[in-house]
Amino acid sequence: MSDDGSSMVTADSGGDTFRDRLPDTRGGVEALLDGLVRENRFTIAVLFPAVGAVTLVGSAEGWVPEPFAFHPWFVLFGVCVMRSPLVVGILPLFDRRAAGWLGVLVAYTYAIEGVGVATGWPYGSFEYAIDLGPMLGGVPLALPVFFIPLVVNAYLLCLLLLGGRASNAAVRLLAVSATVVAMDVVLDPGAVAVGFWRFGEGGAFYGVPLSNYAGWVLSAVVAVFTLDRAFETDAVRERLAGCEFMLDDMVSFVILWGGINVWFGNLLPALVALAFGLGLLATDRFDAGLLTP
């Protein structure tokens, strides 16, 4: 009896010690997550996308056997890990206003994709060719995890590269919209090559119709409009200046989709991915903490 009691005390004490180490304030949680991402930058931003590129190419080429080829939960897990630096970077800026406007962007994401799947407008007639997890009205439930970080990354990169000019709303809108479309120049040909989705009648640009990019202009404009209202531009720029890993998800994008386009011989998309890499170099985002395990 006494042995059991002492064991319980020891276990409870250990549990109390562990709980005592957990932060009990929002600032403490943010600091904990910052440290976790900062200490694992190479794994998150380099190793994960490299493994992802090899796995997706292997699935497309038939090297990865079923049921592991294009396994939706493996894909989603990898995407969530690569998104974590962006999410942790944005977290200190997140309040009820940001939640409301990002909710609007999430709703737009589902609505425009649903219209696109049903009618072919505005991206062109397309269909999902592999399982991307649970669906909602013909649209992957996880779609915002794929789409919204892409436009947020473009927004952040432009704020860094434009400097003071980013304070001009018109300049910001044009720059971010062009960057979002350029990112899709990398993404869609790679996604078509590995078989994520396909356009019904193909397309002139590596199997992608040019109308697709007109659709992305629309989505980029909506994204900039909502992000401008979700966050204070000056606050975002201040957080960017002090958070070296905030664009690591963009690094993952370059490695993952740049590598896939190189493998399939998509020369122009690969060169655009390289240009994004050079842009990140210009912002000092390829630093020693990222490039060394």
TrEMBL record:
Superkingdom of the organism of origin = Archaea
E.C. number(s) listed in UniProt: 4.2.1.161
Q: Which UniProt keywords apply?
A: Lyase, Membrane, Transmembrane, Transmembrane helix
List every stretch annotated Disordered.
1-22
Chain segments annotated as transmembrane: 42-64, 70-94, 101-121, 141-162, 174-197, 203-227, 263-283
Which is one GO molecular function term here? lyase activity
The leader peptide range reads none
Protein name stated in the entry: Bisanhydrobacterioruberin hydratase
* Species per Swiss-Prot/TrEMBL record: Halorubrum rubrum
Which gene is the coding source of this polypeptide chain?
cruF
